[in-house]
Amino acid sequence: MPWVLVFLAGLLEILWATSMKYSQGFTKPAPTLVTIVAMILSFWLLATAMRTLPLGTAYMVWTGIGAVGSFIVGVVFLAEPATAMRLAAAAMIVAGIVTMKLAS
């Protein structure tokens, strides 16, 4: 169950990062509210998972899901560049997440 919580927290991290972009510096109320609520829920789920998971493992997986997921959102929905170097960096993050999960 803790891994499910970390995964959900990571998805919420993608949501709050994306809604933060759309909030335009917290000047738009609806995306700002989504950002704040998603942040609180994401942190709460992560904290709950960390009751049983090691700090470094949980935090790395959570930030990795958020980073790679936000990268994908940027490429797919915001027309951000998907250069070979950026794709390689994302692949290394995924490899790190998988390795950390296998090590725990």
TrEMBL record:
<keyword id="KW-1133">Transmembrane helix</keyword>
<dbReference type="GO" id="GO:0005886">
    <property type="term" value="C:plasma membrane"/>
</dbReference>
<dbReference type="Pfam" id="PF00893">
    <property type="entry name" value="Multi_Drug_Res"/>
</dbReference>
<keyword id="KW-0812">Transmembrane</keyword>
<dbReference type="InterPro" id="IPR045324">
    <property type="entry name" value="Small_multidrug_res"/>
</dbReference>
<keyword id="KW-0813">Transport</keyword>
<comment type="similarity">
    <text>Belongs to the drug/metabolite transporter (DMT) superfamily. Small multidrug resistance (SMR) (TC 2.A.7.1) family. Gdx/SugE subfamily.</text>
</comment>
<protein>
    <recommendedName>
        <fullName>Guanidinium exporter</fullName>
    </recommendedName>
</protein>
<feature type="transmembrane region" description="Helical">
    <location>
        <begin position="33"/>
        <end position="50"/>
    </location>
</feature>
<keyword id="KW-0472">Membrane</keyword>
<dbReference type="InterPro" id="IPR037185">
    <property type="entry name" value="EmrE-like"/>
</dbReference>
<dbReference type="InterPro" id="IPR000390">
    <property type="entry name" value="Small_drug/metabolite_transptr"/>
</dbReference>
<dbReference type="GO" id="GO:0022857">
    <property type="term" value="F:transmembrane transporter activity"/>
</dbReference>
<feature type="transmembrane region" description="Helical">
    <location>
        <begin position="57"/>
        <end position="78"/>
    </location>
</feature>
<keyword id="KW-1003">Cell membrane</keyword>
<feature type="transmembrane region" description="Helical">
    <location>
        <begin position="84"/>
        <end position="103"/>
    </location>
</feature>
<dbReference type="GO" id="GO:1990961">
    <property type="term" value="P:xenobiotic detoxification by transmembrane export across the plasma membrane"/>
</dbReference>
